[in-house]
Design a protein that fits this description.
One of its GO terms (molecular function) is protein kinase binding. This protein is mostly helical. 43% of the residues lie in helices and 0% in strands.
Length: 81
């Protein structure tokens, strides 16, 4: 494919949604959903909270993401806007 082409470029993204989650995976996803505040929409089973019940390791990971400029979804959103 030539890098000098003009016109529309299509990007195909394939996301594989898991059928079953372990308790730990579900807990991690719900914790992530609670922390992600700059994304519109809702997640079933997650209510907005100020405290949260994440462990210190998850907090450190979240702080690192904030220092880098946001989470994965924020970076993906910024890439396409």
């Amino acid at each position: 494919m030539s890098s000098y082409s003009y016109g529309d470029h299509y990007v195909h993204i394939k996301i594989r949604v898991p059928k079953k989650l372990t308790r730990r995976q579900r807990s991690l996803l719900l914790s992530y959903a609670e922390e992600e505040t700059d994304v519109p929409g809702t997640v079933n089973g997650v209510e907005p909270s100020t405290g949260g019940s994440s462990s210190s390791g998850e907090r450190r990971h979240t702080q690192t993401e904030e220092e880098e400029g946001g989470g994965f979804l924020s970076k993906l959103k910024n890439m396409f806007s």
